[in-house]
Specification:
Elements (H helix, E strand, L loop, with lengths): L1 H38 L1 E14 L5 E11 L4 E6 L13 E6 L7 E3 L1 H31 L2
Antiparallel strand pairs: 1-2, 1-4, 2-3, 4-5
Helix pairs in contact: 1-2
C-alpha cells in the first residue's frame, strides 16, 4: 500500500517537473510567437551568412544571418537566428521574417515554422505524459 502512495507521489512530482521544465517554456514561446505574428509585420528576408556554434559533442551547427528591409523606417536590418541546425540554409535564399514596428531588430525568422514545431512538441509532451500517467495509475489501482 505504501508503494502505491510512493508511486503517486513520484507521478505528481514528475508532472510538476515536466510542466515547469518543458511545457511552461514551450507555452511561453508559443504565446510570444503568436503575439509577434499578431502585432508585427511579416516580410521576406534573405540569408546573407551564418553563425556557428558547437554542440555538446563538438559538432559544428549553423544558424542563418538574415537581412530584411524595414519599409516604415526605410532601412535594412540584419538579425542572427538562434535556431541552430547541422545543415546550412542556402545563401541568398528567401525566408519569412516577422518584426515589431517599434523594434525591428527584435525579429523572428520563419515564425510559422517555429510556431508549428513548438505546438507539435507540446502535443507530444502532453501525449507522453498522459500515457505515463494512465499507465502508472492503472498499475496502482489494478492491484
Amino acid at each position: 500500500m505504501s508503494s502505491n502512495y510512493f508511486s503517486l507521489l513520484v507521478l505528481v512530482l514528475m508532472n510538476i517537473v515536466v510542466y515547469r521544465a518543458i511545457f511552461k517554456k514551450l507555452l511561453v514561446n508559443v504565446n510570444s510567437i503568436r503575439n509577434f505574428l499578431k502585432e508585427g509585420k511579416l516580410v521576406k528576408g534573405t540569408v546573407v551568412g551564418y553563425t556557428t556554434e558547437l554542440d555538446l559533442d563538438q559538432h559544428k551547427m549553423y544558424a542563418p544571418v538574415v537581412e530584411f528591409f524595414v519599409e516604415d523606417k526605410n532601412m535594412k536590418c540584419e538579425i542572427k537566428s538562434d535556431d541552430f541546425s547541422f545543415t546550412k540554409v542556402r545563401l541568398n535564399s528567401s525566408v519569412d521574417v516577422c518584426y515589431k514596428f517599434e523594434a525591428p531588430s527584435e525579429a523572428i525568422i520563419n515564425p510559422h515554422k517555429n510556431l508549428t514545431l513548438k505546438i507539435i512538441t507540446m502535443a507530444l509532451v502532453v501525449l507522453l505524459m498522459a500515457a505515463l500517467n494512465v499507465g502508472i495509475i492503472f498499475k496502482i489501482f489494478s492491484h
